[in-house]
């Protein structure tokens, strides 16, 4: 059976890979993570998550172009696989289904304080 | 420029530790981050961030897997162990002997090491042990130095005032003076007396000097009021269960004078302390007896604690000064002779507390000691047994080597280095020694209770001591390497072609070495046999020596000091009426170690002023003493029951010699207390002290203050006799249990040490014989295998079973004969050295040596016979048909 379980941080990283497309490499993802979530993660942490997700078959990667600001070194660009996309979709569906069952469906009634 | 680059050091380090396929992208990402921070914020922050990010990359996924430089070695090591295991299984008997013999050797060594460690570990528990000393007398005359512990009582205040380095000084009285020694005890208010040992007197400071831990009361206060006593925890539980006994009273021997108030409870004396006892009575504020004697007598042992950093030698010099300026004057005032000699030869010596138990200085005292000689001897035996076991291992491993010649050849042919062959055989021997050590620990552990029983110790395996397992592990490696190095070098030196052809010769150098080792083993074994036999002889000699008195069939009934004199005499008369009692005598003095002692200086009355006198033991006995102990009266008469005999004295031959008298009867003697007595009789010398020393002068006077009644029994039925005695006792003293002992048992207790030495000697002699035999057996197995074809051919050509057997056996017997030639003089020298110090010793005789030699040969022949006979009887066709 294919590995389909992922953690919260991994899910965010997967989403960011999808969003950044051609630009999805460890440094950029770490920067984007900070911009989007307001929390910071070191490049190492992100890289480790990327590596894990690749092992689970949700990402593939290949070496991209060298950059000037990186001392002429190449970067590794990550891409979602079909499996990765399926996992994301599945995760969203579960959450949507949960949201739909939430009392007081409408978003403005959501105050978490039961009367 | 440089400032605008990421730290090069970090880059380099990362490049070293990170996975190679990740280095490029990671360094790229980190550099991008660096420039991003440098641009938006500052360079220094960028550098800091770089460090931070780099450190965060040290995660398992990114770090280079240590590329196994070691894995080949590990694989090879695994392979070596596997091969060792297979070799071990292939030759089960051989391997069992190799490992078993080795294990026995190590186990013996382990036990002895524990024993030695225990013997040398006495009195190590004091926090300030290097400041605690026993102060003793030293007498140096003509190059010889002697020590003894008895000192003057009034010296204590002199030391305290005169020598500020002596922080605390305490006197102790061990010998039976006053109530020291054994007593009947009861709590005040209780009626029942219980007989107890371990009473002594001490100054209050003793508790602090010896750092005795207190449960109730304080070290400072517990003995500082007159008539106070400190008792041990177990005795407190016994007499005052479940209460704080401080302030309660103990009565000794039903005597109002000997009523003591408990001032404190101490923990039991540490079992590895030279100082033992359960009841400490204070010397403070006493009116008479112990604690009150003046410059006349030397009755006290001194313990001192020096101030921190005080120099022992300097303090000793100060004591000498005090002797010259104070003590000698006091002695002169007291009218003592020999002051000039004292000034010349006598001084004080501070014996470190840690030396007291083994007593290397041989200080004369009344305590129980270990023997430093025994520690050395046992240490030597341990090493010898271990050596024998090691040699076995080496011998067997080289003997085995022929079988493995092909293996070595093959290994070399396919490219093995010599070094890896050496590594193989060393790891094999370490593997074997690991098995042997594990087995030996199990052996030693299961043999420990037996050993404790034999040696009279209470050793335990120190599993939890921090040093134990590391030392064992270390010994695995050391023994493994030691025993493996020779076979390793020898085996790895084979030439591959010859080895594969099977042309390795087992003769020449190797067999010479092997013979040498067998000779060594047997030499050591024979010396041990001789040692065990001579110790046994010495012991028998001591036990059966004609002592000058009869110790068998004598019962001592103790604790009569709770009766008054009339009752005591009535009790004695009543007992003598019994048909099984031959005679009875009242006296506390006996020719065994734990009895009363008293010594006085004596002069011939007319020489009191002109000579320095000599010391003699002084025993007070009654008129039936000589009769009861069967001591022979040579001249004059025994004490008379009808007379008071206040002015009579009986002396032994040695005393007559010391007095230089031809006709001693009627001569007047005087002692240090100016007591004049006339010699009425002379007794034959008898051994009244340990047989290890000479017989000293002895004087007997008539006295009737005795706590012990001795009975000579003429019945064989001891049980009945004791029942009869007990019945009479209960009529006289129903509230006190009868307490008795047998004189011959007390005598044997004096020689406990010798007895134990004998047993241990015997034990290890047997062990070493066993190990040596195992080795010999395995060697003969090997040899028979080697010469199988030769024997078969001999048989085909007409050799008889006898001649084949002789041929095989003689090779080994030759070695044993050489060993005997070496061992006899060695054993002789060794035993002479051991017996040198003893006064009543056996003479070494040739039967012992002959017996040891014959025993060795017989054992060797029996051992070899198994295989030799098998080889000689086998059908030659079976060996020869395969070719």
Tally the helices of chain B: 26
Across the major sheet of chain B, the strand order is 5-6-11-8-10-9
Question: What form of chain A results from the Cα inertia axes?
Answer: globular
Q: Average pLDDT of chain B, to the nearest integer? A: 85
Order of helices and strands of chain A: HHHEEH
- Low confidence ranges of chain B: none
Distance between the termini of chain A: 45 Å
Strands across the major sheet of chain A, in which order? 1-2
Q: What share of the residues of chain B does DSSP label as strand, in percent?
A: 15-25%
Please identify the oligomeric state: heterodimer
Count the helices of chain A. How many? Answer: 4
Q: Strand pairing plus helix content of chain A: what structural class?
A: alpha+beta
Distance between the termini of chain B: 87 Å
For the secondary structure, the number of strands of chain A is 2
Quickly give the structural class of chain B.
alpha+beta
Radius of gyration of chain A: 17 Å
Features:
heterodimer; A: 115 residues; alpha+beta; two-stranded antiparallel ribbon; 4 helices; 13% strand; globular; B: 883 residues; six-stranded mixed barrel; six-stranded mixed beta barrel
């Amino acid at each position: 059976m294919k590995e389909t379980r992922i953690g919260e941080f991994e899910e965010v990283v997967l989403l960011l890979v999808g969003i950044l497309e051609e630009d999805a490499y460890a440094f950029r993802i770490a920067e984007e993570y900070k911009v989007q979530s307001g929390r910071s993660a070191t490049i190492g942490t992100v890289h480790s998550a990327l590596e894990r997700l690749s092992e689970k078959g949700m990402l593939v990667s290949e070496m991209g172009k060298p950059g000037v600001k990186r001392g002429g070194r190449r970067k590794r660009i990550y891409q979602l696989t079909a499996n990765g996309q399926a996992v994301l979709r599945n995760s969203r569906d579960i959450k949507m289904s949960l949201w739909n069952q939430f009392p007081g469906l409408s978003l403005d009634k959501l105050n978490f304080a039961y009367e | 420029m440089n400032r605008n680059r990421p730290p090069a050091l970090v880059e380099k380090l990362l490049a070293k530790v990170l996975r190679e396929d990740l280095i490029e992208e990671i360094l790229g990402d980190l550099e991008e981050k660096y420039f991003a921070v440098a641009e938006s914020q500052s360079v220094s922050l960028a550098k800091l961030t770089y460090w931070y990010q780099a450190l965060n990359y040290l995660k398992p996924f990114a770090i280079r897997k240590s590329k196994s430089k070691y894995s080949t070695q590990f694989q090879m090591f695994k392979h070596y162990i596997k091969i060792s295991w297979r070799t071990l299984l292939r030759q089960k008997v051989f391997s069992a002997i190799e490992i078993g013999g080795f294990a026995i050797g190590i186990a013996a060594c382990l036990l002895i090491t524990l024993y030695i460690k225990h013997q040398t570990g006495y009195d190590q528990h004091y926090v300030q042990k290097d400041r605690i000393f026993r102060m003793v007398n030293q007498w140096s005359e003509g190059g010889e130095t002697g020590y003894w512990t008895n000192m003057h009582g009034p010296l204590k205040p002199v030391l305290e005032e005169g020598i500020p380095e002596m922080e605390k000084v305490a006197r102790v009285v061990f010998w039976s003076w006053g109530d020291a020694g054994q007593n009947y005890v009861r709590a005040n208010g209780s009626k029942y007396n219980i007989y107890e040992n371990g009473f002594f007197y001490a100054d209050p400071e003793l508790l602090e000097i010896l750092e005795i831990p207190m449960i109730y009361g304080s070290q400072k206060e517990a003995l500082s009021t007159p008539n106070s006593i400190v008792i041990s925890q177990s005795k407190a539980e016994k007499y005052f269960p479940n209460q704080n006994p401080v302030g309660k009273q103990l009565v000794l021997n039903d005597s109002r004078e000997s009523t003591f108030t408990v001032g404190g409870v101490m923990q039991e004396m540490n079992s590895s302390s030279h100082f033992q006892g359960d009841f400490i009575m204070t010397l403070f504020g006493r009116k008479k007896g112990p604690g009150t004697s003046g410059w006349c007598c030397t009755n006290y042992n001194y313990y001192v604690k020096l101030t921190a950093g005080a120099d022992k030698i300097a303090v000793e010099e100060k004591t000498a000064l005090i002797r010259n300026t104070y003590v000698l004057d006091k002695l002169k005032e007291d009218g003592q002779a020999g002051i000039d000699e004292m000034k010349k030869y006598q001084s004080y010596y501070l014996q470190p507390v840690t030396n007291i138990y083994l007593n290397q200085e041989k200080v004369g005292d009344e305590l129980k000691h270990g023997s430093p000689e025994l520690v050395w001897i046992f240490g030597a035996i341990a090493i010898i047994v271990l050596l024998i076991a090691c040699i076995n291992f080496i011998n067997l491993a080289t003997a085995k080597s022929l079988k493995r010649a092909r293996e070595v050849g093959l290994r070399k042919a396919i490219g093995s280095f010599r070094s890896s062959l050496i590594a193989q055989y060393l790891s094999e021997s370490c593997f074997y020694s690991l098995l042997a050590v594990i087995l030996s620990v199990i052996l030693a552990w299961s043999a420990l209770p037996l050993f404790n029983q034999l040696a009279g110790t209470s050793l335990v395996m120190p599993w939890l001591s921090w040093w134990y397992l590391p030392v064992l592990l270390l010994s695995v490696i050391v023994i493994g390497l030691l025993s493996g190095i020779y076979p390793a070098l020898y085996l790895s030196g084979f030439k591959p072609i010859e080895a594969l052809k099977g042309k390795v010769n087992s003769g020449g150098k190797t067999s010479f070495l092997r013979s040498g080792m067998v000779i060594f083993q047997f030499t050591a074994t024979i010396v041990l046999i001789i040692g065990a036999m001579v110790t046994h002889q010495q012991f028998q000699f001591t036990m059966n020596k004609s002592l000058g008195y009869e110790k068998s069939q004598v019962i001592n009934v103790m604790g009569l000091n709770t009766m008054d004199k009339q009752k005591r005499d009535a009790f004695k008369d009543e007992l003598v009426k019994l048909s099984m009692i031959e005679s009875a005598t009242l006296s506390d003095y006996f020719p065994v170690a734990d009895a009363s002692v008293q010594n006085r200086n004596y002069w011939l009355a007319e020489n009191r002023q002109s000579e320095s006198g000599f010391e003699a033991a002084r025993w007070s006995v009654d008129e039936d003493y000589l009769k009861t102990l069967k001591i022979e009266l040579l001249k004059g008469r025994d004490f008379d029951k009808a007379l008071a005999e206040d002015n009579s004295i009986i002396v032994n031959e040695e005393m007559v010699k010391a007095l230089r008298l031809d006709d001693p009867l009627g001569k007047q003697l005087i002692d240090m207390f100016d007591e004049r007595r006339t010699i009425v009789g002379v007794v034959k010398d008898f051994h009244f002290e340990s047989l290890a020393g000479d017989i000293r002068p002895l004087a007997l006077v008539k006295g009737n203050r005795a706590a012990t009644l001795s009975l000579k029994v003429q019945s064989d039925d001891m049980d009945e006799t004791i029942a009869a005695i007990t019945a009479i006792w209960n009529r006289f003293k129903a509230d006190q249990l009868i307490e008795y002992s047998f004189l011959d048992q007390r005598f044997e207790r004096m020689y406990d040490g010798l007895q134990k030495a004998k047993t241990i000697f015997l034990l290890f002699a047997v062990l070493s014989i066993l190990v040596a035999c195992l080795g010999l057996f395995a060697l003969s197995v090997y040899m028979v295998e080697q010469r199988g074809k030769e024997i078969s051919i001999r048989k085909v050509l007409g050799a008889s079973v006898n001649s084949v057997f002789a041929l095989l056996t003689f090779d080994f017997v030759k070695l044993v004969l050489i060993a005997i030639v070496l061992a006899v003089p060695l054993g002789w020298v060794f035993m002479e050295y051991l017996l040198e110090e003893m006064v009543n010793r056996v003479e070494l005789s040739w039967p012992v040596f002959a017996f040891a030699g014959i025993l060795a040969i017989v054992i060797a022949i029996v051992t070899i016979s198994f295989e030799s006979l098998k080889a000689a009887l086998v059908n030659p066709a079976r060996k020869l048909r395969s070719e």
